[in-house]
Amino acid sequence: MLAHFTDHAANERTFLAWIRTALAVMAFGFLVERFDLFLQVAAASLGGHPISVRRQLFGDLIGLLLLVLGGVMMVVATLRYRRNRALIDSPDLQAGQDGRGDLVLVGLLLLLGGALFLYLVVHVLTSV
Fold first, then answer.
1. pTM for the complete prediction?
2. pLDDT by residue (tens digit) across 42-60?
3. Which of 54, 95, 99, 110 has a CA that sits 20 to 30 A from residue 81's CA?
4. How far apart are CA 107 and CA 111, in angstroms?
C-alpha cells in the first residue's frame, strides 16, 4: 500500500476536476468564437436561405480569451498537482496556500462571463 494513499487519491481527483473544468472552459470558448458559423449552418439547413451573420470582433475576442484561460487553468492545475504531490510525500509540515491564484482564475472567468453577457444583451437589443 502506498503511504498517504488517500491524500494522493484526493490530490489526483482534484487535478482531474480542474482539467475537466479547463476543458469545459475551452469548449465554451470555441463555441462562443464559432457561434456565427453555427448560425449559418442552421439557417441553411432549416430554411434553405443563407443568412448573413456579421462577424463580431468582441465575441471572437471573448471566445479566444476563454480558450487561453482554459489552457492557463491546465498549466496551473498541473503545477498545483505536482507541488501537492511533493508536499504529501514530504515529512515536514507545510503551511497551506492562501488561494489567491484560485481567486484570480475565478475573477477572470467572472469578468469574461460578464463581458459576454453584456455583449449578448447589446446584440439582442440592437437586433430587435
1. 0.69
2. 666 666 555 555 556 777 7
3. 110
4. 6
